[in-house]
Specification:
With 92 residues, the protein is an alpha+beta fold. Strand 2 and strand 3 form a beta hairpin.
Length: 92
C-alpha cells in the first residue's frame, strides 16, 4: 500500500476478506479496487468482477475513473493486471 499512498491514494485494506476487493484506494484521479492473490483469477472470480462491473454502468461512464485491478504476488514482487470489462482481460 505504500506505493499507493505515495501516489496520492488514501487506502483501506481488507486483506483476507471474502469480498471482491482487498484494497480500496481513492483519490481525485479515481478509485482503484484491488484484489491481491498469488495467482490469476479463476473463471468464477473473473465472472464475479464482470458482474459487479456490469451491474453498475455508471462506473464506466461517469467522468470519474474507476479501475479494477488484480495484483499477483510472484517472485518477490507484484504484477498488476487491469480489468477493462472483458472476462479475457486477466488471461495470461
Amino acid at each position: 500500500m505504500a506505493n499507493l499512498l505515495a501516489a496520492g491514494y488514501p487506502c483501506t485494506r481488507a486483506a483476507g476478506s471474502k469480498g471482491l476487493w482487498d484494497i480500496i484506494a481513492i483519490a481525485p484521479m479515481g478509485i482503484r479496487l484491488i484484489q491481491i492473490k498469488t495467482r490469476l483469477p479463476s473463471k468464477a472470480e473473473r465472472q464475479a468482477i464482470a458482474e459487479f462491473y456490469n451491474q453498475y454502468p455508471w462506473l464506466k461512464n461517469n467522468g470519474f475513473r474507476v479501475i479494477f485491478e488484480w495484483w499477483v504476488w510472484d517472485k518477490g514482487r507484484f504484477k498488476e493486471y487491469i480489468y477493462g470489462g472483458s472476462l479475457e482481460d486477466f488471461d495470461g
